[in-house]
Amino acid sequence: MQDHKMSLEQAAQLVQDLKRDVSQSIFGQEDLIVEAICCLLSGGHILMTGAPGLAKTSLVRVFAKHLHLHFGRVQFTPDLLPSDIIGSDILNIDPENGRKAFEFNKGPIFVNLLLADEINRASPRTQSALLEAMQERTCTVGAHAHILPDPFMVFATQNPFESEGAFPLPEAQLDRFLLHTLVDYPDQDAEEKILQAHAQSKLVGEQHGAQAQEVAAQRMSVETVKQLIAAKQNVVVPDELLSVINRLVRATRPQDANCPDHLRHLIWYGAGPRAGISLLSVCRSLALLEGSDTVRWRHVRRLVKPALRHRIKLVVQAQNEQNAEDGFIESLLTHIEETAHLAVKGWM
Asked: CA 68 to CA 50: how far, in whole Å?
């Protein structure tokens, strides 16, 4: 790849090609694909919550194939240790002179795309092994910090908290995820396509022999992905929309003047400043995916729930139905659109 900067038009075309290629293998999960691409372009991580068998693992494999990035998987279990993820120092003895020296043995985290499968099956101690890696892109073992590959993205899958043997992710861990996407069942037509692909042995992971050796068209590389991330920064965010995003995030905090009085009593704690940064970043990515050079309100509305649902906590009395956070965010959106209608209307 040449060193010249990639234009927004070139970047948008590549991203749209990636979305099309992934959609040819992953059926009925349009929202998941879009949100995963937005996370990739934003240099962040994605948490995927849903029932088993909804193509969450297959998505990561297809991404790795089309991006030509190094892929790794860790199956999180209650007996998993932090060293099983990040690696450890091992003692080596030179057979010739008997000299002893410690050498770092890299764990499976040293990849570009890491699938943290069933992350909430592991103990909080093991979950915390990912904190530094996800935020700093480094792993510290002993007195040495080891740099992770660039780009580095975590795709974490999660079982519902009510499942037996699951450990809810702590707030600090949740905040490391750029987006929290809820993976739903495919519609009837998409599920029929899945059955047809299975009947022809074309589902992801079912190919054998020559089919398994088939390689995706060489559109992407590590350098291409880096240039896509850089190109996304050229997407413009109007000051008026920036102010609305700021008001929206601050409205999630019960002590803030922007929080509507009729919703204040529902909130235990609201989203921090990283929520606004995350929302802004993924909105730029979505604008790029759509071929737009400017962030619009529709981009904010599309991504505000996956960007905020894991960063706010409602009081127990307000958690009387599944995904209560989404209902709360929808109420906030309605309030913002009513009180800031002029600014929002101008940037639809």
From this structure: 27
* 180, containing H or E segment: strand 179-183
Number of H helices, E strands in the chain: 15, 11
- CB contact at 8 A, 88 and 105: yes
Helix 324-339 with 239-250: angle, nearest 10 deg:
130
Is the pTM higher than 0.85? Answer: yes
Q: 215 with 241, same domain?
A: no
- Convert the pLDDT of each residue in 268-307 to its tens digit: 999 999 999 999 999 999 999 999 999 999 999 999 999 9
Token pair recorded at residue 224: 């291409």
* C-alpha to C-alpha distance for 247 and 259, rounded to whole angstroms: 9
pLDDT digits (tens, 9 = 90+) for 114-125: 999 999 888 888
Q: Are residues 215 and 310 in the same domain?
A: no
What is the domain extent for residue 304? 235-345
